[in-house]
Amino acid sequence: MRIASTFVRIGILVLLGTLLSALMAPELWGERTGGDVMSTANFAITILNEWAFALVILGALLAMAMAGAAYLVRDERVVNLMWELPGGEEE
After folding, report:
1. Residue 19 lies in a domain
2. Of 1, 51, 59, 67, which one is least surrounded by beta carbons within 10 A?
3. Pairwise CA distance, residues 32 & 40, whole Å
4. Which residues contact 38 (CB under 8 A, 6 or more apart)?
5. CA–CA distance, 47 with 56 (Å, rounded to integer)
6. How many domains, the chain?
7. Domain containing 22: what range?
């Protein structure tokens, strides 16, 4: 079983190496001229104009994730609930 696991790990590393070398090949990307280089301002305009709906959906998903995380972190043990009541700890 350990040999199979080792072969799988080596296979994944080989696959990642192959994909990385294929994606980093300069022939794939071509030459860029100065006119079509995106600046920070162009990127912001593109995100806010062409991707506005996706940005709103992503914001809503992140807000729900934060609310869920805050709910899961709450501590509802009886000792802590009694501490929050007026009068402090139970004597």
Report:
1. yes
2. 1
3. 17
4. 46
5. 11
6. 1
7. 2-28+40-84
Give the pLDDT of the chain (91 residues) as one tens digit per residue.
Answer: 789 999 999 999 999 999 998 888 877 666 665 556 778 888 888 888 888 888 899 999 999 999 999 888 876 776 666 666 666 555 5
* Rounded Cα–Cα distance for residues 6 and 4 (Å): 5
Q: Tell me if 58 is assigned to some domain.
A: yes
Look up residue 54 and give its two tokens: 């996706």
**Within-domain flag for 47:** yes
Kindly state the tokens that stand for 34: 């100065």
CA dist 89 and 91 (Å) reads 6
CB contact at 8 A, 47 and 55: yes
* In-domain check, residue 24: yes
Which two structure tokens, joined as six digits, stand for 11?
């296979």
Structure-block tokens of residue 69: 């995380």
Reported pTM: 0.41
